[in-house]
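Attaching the record inline, Q. Sequence:
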Amino acid sequence: MSFKFIAASTTALCLSGITAFAGGHGAGPVGVEEINGAEVIVDANHMTLYTFDNDAEGQSSCYDACAQNWPPLAGDAEMALPEGYGLTERTDGSMQITYNNQPLYLWINDTNPGDMTGDGVKDVWHVARP
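Structure, as predicted:
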């Protein structure tokens, strides 16, 4: 596994191979890692992030049981996010991090960094790629 830094709009600090965005809060997307020869977007814990085909116009359609299996990647307005990343408001008022206007999710069955077991689930879940 190799790690590639993503430039943030503010100063990025390198802490043990993890990029933390200065002034940010929470664990957001921190970079791109090469896993099994593919570049994938990962969170602060180096866990693979996913997109959902049923999301439209930057809005999540994954709630209730779906969100229990596919936890939304939470963010807040105080986070400094790299170019291409943003936030979308969920129906409960919380914020979810997006990449190229696609909400990002974790997969409950990925237990270790580098796992990508959610790729292709029901033909609507896909590894988030830069």
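Residues 65-69 form the longest helix (5 residues). The first strand starts at residue 2 and ends at 5.

More tomorrow.
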